[in-house]
Amino acid sequence: MRRGIAAAVLAAAIAVSASACGSSSSGSSGSGAKADSPVTITWWDTSDATNEAPTYKALVAAFEKANPTITVKYVNVPFADAQTKFQTAAGSSGAPDVLRADVGWTSGFAKAGYLVPLDGTAATADSSSFEKQLVTQASYNGHQYGVPLVTDTLGLMYNKALFAKAGITAAPTTWDELKADAALVKQKDGVDGFEFNAASYYAMPFLYGEGTDMIDASSQKITVNSAAAVKGIDTIKSLLASPGVTKLDTTANAYATMMDKFGSGKIAMIVQGPWETTNVYKGSAFTDKSNLGVAQVPAGSTGKAGAPIGGHNLVAYAGADTAHQAASEKFIAFMTSAASQVTIATKNATLPTRSDAYTSAVTSNPGIAAFQAILAAGVPRPAVPEYSSMYTPFNTDLLKILAGQESTQTGLNNASVAIKKLVPSYATQ
Q1: Which range is the signal sequence, renumbered to this chain (predicted)?
Q2: Cα separation of 124 and 70, whole Å?
Q3: Cβ 283 vs Cβ 262: under 8 Å
């Protein structure tokens, strides 16, 4: 798992060296500096240092060439460390000017006063070109604090060849259909039909399918232990007990093992995000990329289907002076432009956040084209700063429930108690 999963579970804050800081180390021009005065801004990029960062570095160079008075100090910060590291830096007035922030961090950073609103700035001049739900997810208290850079959601990945061998002509649209297809694959192909990644983020479609979520932000109520949520988690339990479905694996290597088996054709279906398509294509079962099918996650008993929307926003530090903020806004506009997003998508195989970036060159990647088709069904996260942190207690009890250590209701009740500590003003069931 990489995106959308809360980083709030990180341990104590990590000290930030002065050399990595933005405004405090960038030779501030002062608030009265001329617009064309040389300025250096710092950008913390949280992308994968090996596979994705080279593309972003090349774009930084292109930006500097187009804007000779602005220098961008590029710092690649491991994603797992970035949330806590930024909080520490912002609290000591030494944060980077621009951060590539997980969508789940944006509202929390905005609430803490770490981010500057971008409404009406160069950074948000093209907001109408972005997918509406992504702009909503980058906003807090009526203001836009981030500009969507890349996005993702979960879909049902499946092996078309295994489907054809089993006589399955279309992807399942309900969990009951998926159960039947998994059993058929096992019978006809001799491999498991489905494996579930036992993690709270991947359980969200089962809640959405029953018309619920961990919380109801509009009524300020905790719903993770509601009757609908119980039904959703019981659906997972039912799946895990079904023929042709891989038994629960909670070992440390469970995720990697699942991906290896799917890539080599030993599993027919998984719920997964577009960040894994490049790795899937490396598998022996997908040397022909067209063998990978991607469909919307199956619907629950309500007929509803949906998956969480993840991804990253570019945000600007509120503690920077006027000159640095202006340069940061121009940089954000450049990095999230249609042309830059086309470059990022074609080089990194990630999903653009604006409709005009889905060019023929981008959608020639079958994985991107497939996920674009289901992105509209994605469910934005509530603009609740504590929301991402809720995945952790939910995950703790989800594993106990699926392992048979707790009943579904007891486990979700325990998760509700833990979530209540994060949002004490919310009502409980």
Answers
A1: 1-20
A2: 19
A3: yes
| Beta-strand relationship, 307-316 and 98-102 | antiparallel
Q: pLDDT digits over 318-351, tens only? A: 999 999 999 999 999 999 999 999 999 999 999 9
Non-local (6+) Cβ contacts of 360 within 8 A are: none
Contacts of 299 (CB under 8 A, 6+ apart): 173, 174, 175, 209, 305
- The tokens 């969508």 sit on which residue? 103
- How far is residue 212 CA from its own chain's centroid? 19
Residue 159 token pair: 């092996």
CA 52 to CA 45: how far, in whole Å? 10
pTM (predicted TM-score): 0.86
Instruction: Residue 77: name the closest of 100, 97, 58 by CA.
Output: 100
N- to C-terminal Cα distance for the chain? 31
Question: What are all long-range contacts of 60-63, with beta carbons under 8 Å and residues at least 24 apart?
Answer: 63/331, 63/334, 63/335
The two structure tokens encoding residue 109:
């950073």
Whose tokens are 């789940």? That residue is 104
For the chain, state the CA radius of gyration.
22
Cα–Cα dist 83/64, whole Å = 27
Residue % of the chain over a pLDDT of 90: 86
